[in-house]
């Protein structure tokens, strides 16, 4: 029995028996940006504006008449507490956005625009021209604002070292990243060196030319310094995916024994792995 | 786009694949170069037809080639600019030394010395002296204009007030040797 069911986020859930021809026709009728296959529920989520078109396809392929329900068209931002098990690397999507997908609640149900991640981890390269190979500031390597104080540096170092230690993180580039984290801490932990580094950073910021904000985010592959966590986020849910507009808090996932979860996607593996340390 | 001087902070960033702020960790001297309109004058010292600005650029190039990564170059005129590529931007306006000192005061206490290279009296000498009074690090001066002028006298007073040394090098001859002497004496 086929149906079109309204979802909380305003999308429509399409339930039908499996039919390859129907699926092809749906993909042809509903643009990529307006549909999403929900792995767990085994159904399509579609933008409600395509409800009548999909209802017509259901009539055509299954001989069933389904009523197109009305949905709540208002898009209301939501704040959610989420246990995210893995955050991938930013990629350019079909619609031109550059986002990283997050895995939570059994599916890839989170989408983080690169700008949001960079803003949260203070990895904003807007002070310099477009150069993907330009070394990050030592503060950005530790995921903290520039000119942070000693205590914040120490806390950030411990967190990053845990996440990126090659013994627990088997992602491509983890060893190199771990070395950079260690080097950043070696420089910034010394008050005198940090003070001089801050002077250099101030002069560097003054010397940098402004660039078009949009141009910066054409780079692919930004990797946030953290891969998992307990997040408090604000965003808009659509087609089963919460697109995050603001990260309010990012804590470690800690179990009853006080261990911290770290996750990584080993090179060549089919999926990510998590472990407690 | 200016070319990058060998031994400048930008050159170090490229050689070592580090950021500019990190390259600055090894810098111990900040050189403030006057690039006001008068630096376009020619002194014809030893038959050299270069302008004072061109001469200063050549000397700074030699300096940075010899003392890689140790010099931060600041160009000043009406405003001040950090020139990590090693060649001072030719700003060609007034001589606002007070503004230049305000610009570099962030480095006071973390570098070994400041060296002011100028060919004339600043637009507002009193303000410049007032800014310099806030510094704890030595300020040396190198005068490269006509000897016997009020500018030469001002730069001598500025250096004396801040445990620095003053030199007069008409036309900017031997700036590099003079600066190296100052840095080695530190």
What does the secondary structure layout of this molecule look like, with pairings?
The complex is a heterodimer of chains A (277) and B (186).
Chain A lengths: L2 E4 L5 E4 L4 H10 L5 E4 L4 E4 L4 H12 L15 E10 L3 E2 L5 E7 L2 E7 H7 L17 H4 L8 H15 L9 H15 L2 H17 L5 H4 L12 E10 L2 E11 L9 E4 L8 E4 L1
Parallel strand pairs in A: 8-10
Antiparallel strand pairs in A: 1-2, 2-4, 3-4, 5-7, 5-9, 6-7, 7-8, 9-10, 11-12
Helix pairs in contact in A: 1-2, 5-6
Chain B lengths: L8 H8 L3 H4 L5 E6 L17 H15 L4 E6 L3 E3 L14 H8 L8 E6 L6 H8 L5 E6 L6 H12 L4 E3 L6 H11 L1
Parallel strand pairs in B: 1-2, 1-4, 4-5, 5-6
Antiparallel strand pairs in B: 2-3
Protein traits:
heterodimer; A: 277 residues; alpha+beta; five-stranded mixed β-barrel; four-stranded antiparallel sheet; 8 helices; B: 186 residues; alpha/beta; 7 helices; 35% helix; globular
What does this structure look like?
The complex is a heterodimer of chains A (277) and B (186). In chain A, strand 1 (3-6) and strand 2 (12-15) form a beta hairpin. Chain A is built from eight helices and twelve strands. Helix content of chain A is 30%, strand content 26%. By secondary structure, chain A is of the alpha+beta class. Chain A is elongated, with a radius of gyration of 22 Å. A five-stranded mixed barrel of chain A has the order 5-7-8-10-9. Chain A has helices at residues 20-29, 51-62, 114-120, 138-141, 150-164, 174-188, 191-207, 213-216, and strands at 3-6, 12-15, 35-38, 43-46, 78-87, 91-92, 98-104, 107-113, 229-238, 241-251, 261-264, 273-276. In chain B, strands 3-2-1-4-5-6 form a six-stranded mixed sheet, sandwiched between helices. The mean pLDDT of chain B is 91. In chain B, 35% of the residues lie in helices and 16% in strands. Chain B has helices spanning 9-16, 20-23, 52-66, 97-104, 125-132, 150-161, 175-185, and strands spanning 29-34, 71-76, 80-82, 113-118, 138-143, 166-168. Chain B starts with 8 loop residues before the first helix and ends with a helix. With 186 residues, chain B is α/β, with parallel strands linked by helices. In chain B, strand 1 (29-34), helix 3 (52-66) and strand 2 form a beta-alpha-beta unit. Chain A binds chain B through residues 134-138, 187, 192-193, 195-204, 206-207, and chain B through 13, 17-25, 27, 72, 81-84, 103, 106-107, 109-111.
């Amino acid at each position: 029995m086929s149906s079109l069911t309204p979802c909380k986020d305003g999308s429509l859930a399409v339930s039908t028996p499996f039919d390859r021809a129907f699926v092809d026709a749906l993909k042809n009728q509903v643009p990529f940006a307006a549909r999403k296959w929900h792995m767990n529920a085994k159904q399509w989520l579609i933008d409600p504006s395509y409800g009548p078109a999909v209802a017509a396809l259901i009539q055509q392929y299954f001989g069933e008449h389904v009523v197109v329900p009305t949905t709540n068209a208002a898009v209301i931002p939501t704040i959610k507490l989420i246990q995210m098990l893995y955050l991938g690397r930013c990629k350019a999507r079909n619609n031109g956005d550059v986002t990283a997908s997050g895995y939570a609640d059994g599916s890839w149900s989170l989408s983080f625009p690169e700008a949001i991640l960079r803003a949260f981890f203070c990895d904003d390269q807007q002070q310099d021209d477009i150069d993907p190979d330009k070394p990050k500031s030592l503060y950005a390597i530790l995921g903290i604002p520039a000119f942070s104080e000693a205590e914040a540096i120490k806390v950030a170092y411990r967190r990053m070292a845990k996440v990126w230690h090659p013994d627990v993180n088997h992602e491509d580039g983890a060893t190199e990243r771990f070395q950079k984290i260690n080097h950043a801490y070696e420089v910034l932990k010394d008050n005198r060196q940090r003070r001089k580094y801050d002077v250099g950073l101030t002069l560097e910021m003054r010397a940098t030319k402004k660039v078009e904000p949009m141009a910066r985010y054409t780079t692919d592959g930004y990797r946030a310094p953290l891969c998992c966590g307990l997040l408090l986020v604000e965003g808009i849910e659509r087609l089963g995916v919460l697109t995050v507009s603001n990260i309010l808090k990012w804590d470690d996932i800690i179990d009853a024994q006080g261990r911290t979860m770290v996750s990584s996607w080993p090179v060549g593996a089919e999926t990510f792995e998590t472990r407690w340390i | 786009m200016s070319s990058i001087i060998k031994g400048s902070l930008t050159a170090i960033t490229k050689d070592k694949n580090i950021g500019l702020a990190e390259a600055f960790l090894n810098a111990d001297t900040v050189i403030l170069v006057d690039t006001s309109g008068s630096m376009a004058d020619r002194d014809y010292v030893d038959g050299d037809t270069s302008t004072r600005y061109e001469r200063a650029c050549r000397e700074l190039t030699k300096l940075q080639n010899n003392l890689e990564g140790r010099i931060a170059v600041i160009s000043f005129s009406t405003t001040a600019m950090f020139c990590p590529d090693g060649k001072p931007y030719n700003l060609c306006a007034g001589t606002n030394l007070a503004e230049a000192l305000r610009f570099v005061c962030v480095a006071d206490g973390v570098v070994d010395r400041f060296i002011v290279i100028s060919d004339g009296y600043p637009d507002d000498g009193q303000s410049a002296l007032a800014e310099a009074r806030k510094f704890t690090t030595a300020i040396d001066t190198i005068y490269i204009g006509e000897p016997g002028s009020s500018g030469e006298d001002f730069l001598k007073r500025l250096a004396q007030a801040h445990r620095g040394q003053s030199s007069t090098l008409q036309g900017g001859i031997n700036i590099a040797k003079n600066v190296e002497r100052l840095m080695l004496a530190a």
